[in-house]
Design goal:
Blueprint (H helix, E strand, L loop, with lengths): L3 E5 L8 H10 L1 E6 L7 H15 L6 E3 L1 E3 L2 E2 L12 H6 L5 H22 L3 E2 L24 H17 L3 E7 L15 E2 L3 H8 L1 H5 L5 E4 L3 E2 L12 H11 L5 E6 L9 H11 L3 E3 L5 H10 L5 H12 L10 H13 L3
Parallel strand pairs: 1-2, 1-12, 2-3, 3-6, 6-7, 7-9, 8-10, 9-11, 11-12
Antiparallel strand pairs: 4-5
Helix pairs in contact: 1-2, 4-5, 4-12, 9-10
Amino acid sequence: MNTRAFIAGCSGTELTLDEASFFKEADPWGFILFRRNVESPEQVRALCAALRDAVGRSDAPILIDQEGGRVQRLGPPHWPKYPSGRTYGRLHANDPLVQREIARLGARLIAHDLRSVGITVDCLPVLDVPSPGAHDVIGDRAYGPTPSQVAILGRAAAEGLLAGGVLPVVKHMPGHGRAGADSHLALPVVDASRDELERHDFAPFRMLTDMPLAMTAHVVYTALDPERPATTSPVVMQDIIRGHIGYDGLVMTDDLSMHALSGSFRDRTEAAFAAGCDMALHCNGNMEEMRAVAEAAPILGGEALRRANAALARITHDPEPLDPVDARSRLDSALAMIA
C-alpha cells in the first residue's frame, strides 16, 4: 500500500487525463468536491467513480462541505436547501429534545443525498463557539452561543450522518469561533487566556472525542503558541488536541491553500506533519500545488493509518432505513415554525 496521506481536489466536473494520471501515481487517501465539481447527480456519481478508479480503491473517501446555510456544495435544482447550524439552535427554544431530533434528521437527509451519489464524508459538524466581536466567517454556521448547545447539536448532526453511512468531520479543532479574521484570507490571532479557551472554545471538542475525523483551525492562540497556527504547531497538536482535548481520531489540516498559511506548499505540508497532523488537505485542484503537497506528504502508515482505517470502519454498515419524503416533510414542518 503506497497511499499518501493527503486529500486532493480536482478542477472541473470530470477528471482530465493529467489529473487521472497524477492521482494514479500519487495515490491520495481521498478527494474533496466543491461547487465547481458539481453539475447533476449523474455527473457527480460518475466523477466519484472516476476518482476511485484512478487510485484503484473502491472505498477511497470522497469529502464535501455540505453544512447547509452558506456552506452547501450540492444545491437546487437537484438537491434541496438545508438550514444553517444556527437555525437548528433556534427551534423550539424551550425544548432541546426537539432541536436535537431535527438537527439529527437534517443531517440524516444530507447523508441520504451524499451516499446516493457516492460521497462518503461530510465536513460537518461545526463545533466552533462564536464569541462577540468575532469575524462572521463562523457566525450562523455555529449551532448556538454556548459550548453545551454546540456540543449537543453537533453530536446530533454527527449521529445523523453516521446513521446514513457518511463520516462526519468535526471542525475547526481546537476552535475558530473567537477568531477576528477569515482564515481563507488572513491569519487570525486569538489572545484569550488558556483558561478561557479551555472553558469556552475547547469544550465541545472534548465532548465529541469519539468522532472519527477532525479538521484543524488555521488560527494562532498566543497563550499556547504565539508563533504558529494550530495546524503547524506541535504545542497545539500534542498538548491541546491530543492532550487536553484527548482526541485520538484522524486529524486532517484545513485547506493548505488558505491565505492564513505562508511559505511554499511543500513547507506548509511538511510543517503540518511535523506538528503531528495525520492528513493534509488541498482543495483548489491546482496541479502545481497538488504536486508539491504530494511530494511532501508521507506514505500513510503507523498511527495515521490506524486512525484512517478506524474511520472507514465506522461506515461499513448499511444505512439506517429512511423514508426521504416523510423525513423531509418533518424537517420542513419543524423549520416552518421559525420562518
